């Protein structure tokens, strides 16, 4: 099969490698496509602890496809279309334990379905405990931020979407944001949110960027006794936080990246239902499709976000 191999910083090749075989309790999936995650950027650019070459298909963890082989004891039929949690899906095939695979219903036939990041958004939303009538600030309107805007507005919250690009703010309005603010001036943002909320600021703030300034801003926008949810993936170094401010406000701080498999799978099943039912249409978020041999371009677009770019999908022939 063909598989993308990270050869060094910024260098990806497509290699011919053996097709993986499912072990006991595993299924093999013929990959239809795999989303490109923002968390792929730092490993692709090179981190001090990286080693080369990477594993075939490595970095790919947002896959969907069709089961084409099953290992002993795996209770799933060949031909079932599924979303999966796996780690080497920038390839023609990948394997996963059957408990990390969710069948896709007929309502999703023919549609791309990068289930893992949608599941992340579902789990983040659950941890945020958003209630109707609350002001909710969402900092960073990418793939996660846009879905969270939809879920929060559907729950009856008043969403303040904050992001750098006008295209992102337009997307937030499409998904139900009540207020959009360009992420340009720190103190102007604080002033406008304070004015909108009558000086009480927000009972819920979700930081969905993964950088220092948005985290600083989140601490300023959260109200007394509120819940600050860190959804951004902070992987490029340590962060400093204003604990004095956090402590004075008496806030809850939630790191919303789930590592418990049962929770991850609950989110994935709920993500399937959310899209299949029509409550969420992620189609506007899929803004670039690339064949496997253009994975490098997909990663560059994910980093640079040209124009209306939100998420790249790598599709297999």
From TrEMBL:
Its EC number is 1.1.1.1. It comes from the Bacteria. PANTHER family: NAD-DEPENDENT ALCOHOL DEHYDROGENASE. GO terms for molecular function: alcohol dehydrogenase (NAD+) activity; zinc ion binding. The gene is adhT_1. Its cofactor is Zn(2+). Belongs to the zinc-containing alcohol dehydrogenase family. The keyword Oxidoreductase applies. It comes from Sphingomonas mucosissima. Residues 8-314 form the Enoyl reductase (ER) domain. It is an enzyme of class 1 (oxidoreductase). Keywords: Metal-binding, Oxidoreductase, Zinc. This is Alcohol dehydrogenase. The keyword Transmembrane helix does not apply.
């Amino acid at each position: 099969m063909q598989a993308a191999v990270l050869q060094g910083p910024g260098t990806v090749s497509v290699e011919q490698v053996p097709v993986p075989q499912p072990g006991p309790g595993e299924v093999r999936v013929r990959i239809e496509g795999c989303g490109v995650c923002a968390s792929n950027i730092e490993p692709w650019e090179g981190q001090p602890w990286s080693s080369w070459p990477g594993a075939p298909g490595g970095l790919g963890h947002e896959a969907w496809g069709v089961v084409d082989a099953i290992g002993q004891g795996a209770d799933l039929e060949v031909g079932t279309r599924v979303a999966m949690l796996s780690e080497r899906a920038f390839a023609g095939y990948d394997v996963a334990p059957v408990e990390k695979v969710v069948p896709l219903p007929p309502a999703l036939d023919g549609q791309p379905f990068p289930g893992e990041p949608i599941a992340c958004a579902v789990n983040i939303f659950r941890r945020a405990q958003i209630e109707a009538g609350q002001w909710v600030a969402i900092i960073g309107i990418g793939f996660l931020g846009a879905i969270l805007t939809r879920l929060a507005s559907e729950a009856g919250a008043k969403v303040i979407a904050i992001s750098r690009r006008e295209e992102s703010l337009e997307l937030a309005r499409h998904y139900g944001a009540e207020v959009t603010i360009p992420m340009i001036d720190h103190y102007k943002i604080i002033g406008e949110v304070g004015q909108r909320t009558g000086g009480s600021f927000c009972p819920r703030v979700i930081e969905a960027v993964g950088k220092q300034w948005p985290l600083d801003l989140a601490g300023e926008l959260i109200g007394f006794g509120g819940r600050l949810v860190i959804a951004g993936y902070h992987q490029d170094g340590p962060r400093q936080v204003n604990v004095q401010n956090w402590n004075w406000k008496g806030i809850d701080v939630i790191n919303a990246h789930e590592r418990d498999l049962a929770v991850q799978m609950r989110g994935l099943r709920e993500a399937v239902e959310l899209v299949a039912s029509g409550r969420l249409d992620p189609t506007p978020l899929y803004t670039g499709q690339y064949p496997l041999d253009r994975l490098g371009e997909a990663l560059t677009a994910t980093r640079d976000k040209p124009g209306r770019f939100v998420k790249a999908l790598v599709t297999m022939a």
